[in-house]
Amino acid sequence: MPITQDFEYHKPATLAAVIKLLGQYKKPAILAGGTDLIAEIKEGVTAPDALMDIKGLADLKKIEFKNGKLTIGSLVTFSQLIESKLIQSKFPVITEVAKMVASVGIRNRATMVGNICSAVPCMDSGPVLCAYDAVINVKGAKGARKIAIDKWFLGPRKTSLKKGEIVTGISIAIPDKKHAGCYVKLGRYSGEDLAQASVLILAMPNDTDRIAFGSVGPTPIRARNLEKLLNGHKLDEAIISEAKQLILKTVFPITDIRATKEYRMHMCQVMFERGIKAASNRLAGDGPPYGHNQI
Amino acid sequence: MKKKMINFNLNGRKIAVEIEPQLTLLEMLRDRLGVKSPKCGCDRGDCGTCTVMLDGRTVRSCLVLAVEVDGLTVTTLEGIMKDDKLTPIQQAFIDNNSFQCGFCAPGMILSATELLKKNPKPNKEEIQEALSGNLCRCTGYSPIIDAILEFTKGGK
């Protein structure tokens, strides 16, 4: 299907030029990997009057780790995340998440920042960024600002990015304590399929865990009530079964073409149990290797 | 619609072409340049029949604008042969009868090429994962996987 939407194409060489150009159009869109944007333009979901291709901005292609803080630039693709030795050693659960995004041909192009800017409820990047308390770095004509991940997602396809602003990257402070994680994603088949439900667990010493769900609400859900329940408790069958009951009050999925609400609710419980066991075993040093879905 | 001039390398040839920014890479390759191995299947990135390599990595040419490849290197199935000889992967596909209708084959071969470059002896699970974005609607997956497994066994 040819694109009928008329837009101008720009490939600015500096961030300042991007911001200046953003101010000159009514409905500009930023083009990084394009795997969501081009499909959305084809389907008429979005109708930009200008595309700013930011792939000329070399600074945004970097993954950096300085003073305990990881920064993932806006042009970092999922393939780059998977191949990064730094991510593999310090944030292996990010590697695990990245490996479960779509397929190689998409991951070679799609970026993590693009994933959270599209903000489709089934995105894979949401839960992990919520669990790590990530911060989104944004720049606009009025200067730079930082947005906590809790304040980033406003609804399906809605973020707190304002017109004229661009995301330059995502920052994650590495937890002080040793930690392990697990991402469990439910899809109909491996490959391009979107998540029907997903859960991300970060396990830390002294039974302090962080839990987030994806695809079972309009935005990713950081399950602080579950964390409160589990905090300080040794992980046993009794507390897991109590937590599973609480999940039913934590997630609020809908029925759509990919799964029913009831199935998603049920699977959240199953995936939570497998995920938290895998994450705590990984923390103890004898868990399943990263990169294998627990479902 | 303002046209743009782009220059890129296509299968070892220098190409200069004037295109509309709305044109996808797939449309440019097939309709303007006559390169027919990338196919239009789903046209939304799900099926992998439009797979081409961009600077050595597989991409969905239906989700890339032609204007984005300015200055880059595009390789399609037509460009992977050396000295007019089939690559070992292409030969393995023939030996294993890995084609039914053939519509998915260009994408499958390019995805397999990328996999073997990164991982010369993949196991079955790794092969399945690497090809999971390439759909074969004849469902002839087994002979395709068998072809790539030949490399794992050291046969090629």
Describe this structure in words.
The complex is a heterodimer of chains A (295) and B (156). Chain A is α+β, with helices and mostly antiparallel strands. Chain A has three domains: 8-53, Uridine Diphospho-n-acetylenolpyruvylglucosamine Reductase, domain 2 (2-Layer Sandwich); 60-173, Uridine Diphospho-n-acetylenolpyruvylglucosamine Reductase, domain 3 (2-Layer Sandwich); 182-284, Enolase-like, domain 1 (2-Layer Sandwich), CATH 3.30.390.50. Chain A has helices at 15-22, 37-43, 78-83, 85-90, 92-99, 104-107, 112-118, 125-131, 149-152, 224-230, 237-247, 261-284, and strands spanning 8-10, 28-31, 50-53, 63-66, 69-73, 135-140, 143-148, 153-155, 158-159, 166-173, 180-186, 197-204, 208-214, 221-222. In chain A, the strands form four sheets. Chain A has a five-stranded antiparallel sheet. In chain A, strand 12 and strand 13 (208-214) form a beta hairpin. The radius of gyration of chain A is 19 Å and the shape is globular. The two termini of chain A are 36 Å apart. Chain B is α+β, with helices and mostly antiparallel strands and 156 residues long. Chain B has two domains: 4-76, Beta-grasp domain (Ubiquitin-like (UB roll)); 88-152, DNA polymerase, domain 1 (Orthogonal Bundle). In chain B, 31% of the residues lie in helices and 16% in strands. Chain B has five helices and five strands, in the order E-E-H-E-E-E-H-H-H-H. Chain B has helices at 25-32, 88-95, 105-118, 124-130, 141-152; strands at residues 4-10, 13-19, 51-54, 57-60, 73-75. Chain B has a five-stranded mixed sheet with strand order 2-1-5-3-4, with helices on one face. In chain B, a hairpin with a 2-residue loop joins strand 1 (4-10) and strand 2 (13-19). Chain B is globular and about 50 Å long. At the A-B interface, helix 2 and helix 6 of A face strand 4, helix 3 and helix 4 of B.
